Amino acid sequence: MYVCICHGVTDKKIAETIDNGARSMRDLSQTLSVGKQCGKCCNCAKKILNEKLIAIVDVTDQVA
């Protein structure tokens, strides 16, 4: 699904960027230009970011 229409960024691309090390909206903005134009994508991008980061922490906690 497209999250950022202005820059053609999908939810999968955001998830991939997080998997590759992005840990904040600033990281997503610098890498994908999310939120740099109209800003309507910010809430959805933040939701994806938070869900992915929680999943990463859960996996890390299970391994430890």
Describe what you observe in this structure.
The protein is mostly helical and about 60 residues long. The chain has a single domain, classed as BFD-like [2Fe-2S]-binding domain (Arc Repressor Mutant, subunit A). It has 3 helices and 2 strands; from the N terminus they run ββααα. A two-stranded antiparallel sheet has the order 1-2. β1 and β2 (about 10) form a beta hairpin. The longest helix has 22 residues, at about 40-64. The chain is elongated. It starts with a strand and ends with a helix. The model has no long low-confidence stretch (mean pLDDT about 95).
Name a few traits of the molecule.
64 residues, mainly alpha, Arc Repressor Mutant, subunit A, two-stranded antiparallel sheet, 3 helices, 8% strand, elongated, BFD-associated_ferredoxin, BFD-like_2Fe2S-bd_dom_sf, transport, electron transport
Helix content range:
55-70%
What would you report as the Rg, rounded to the nearest angstrom? 12 Å
Strand order of the largest sheet: 1-2
Mean pLDDT: 95
Within the CATH hierarchy, at the fold level, what is the topology?
Arc Repressor Mutant, subunit A
Figure out the total of helices: 3
Structural classification: mainly alpha
Portion in beta strands: 5-15%
Number of strands: 2
Instruction: Write out the CATH superfamily name.
Output: BFD-like [2Fe-2S]-binding domain
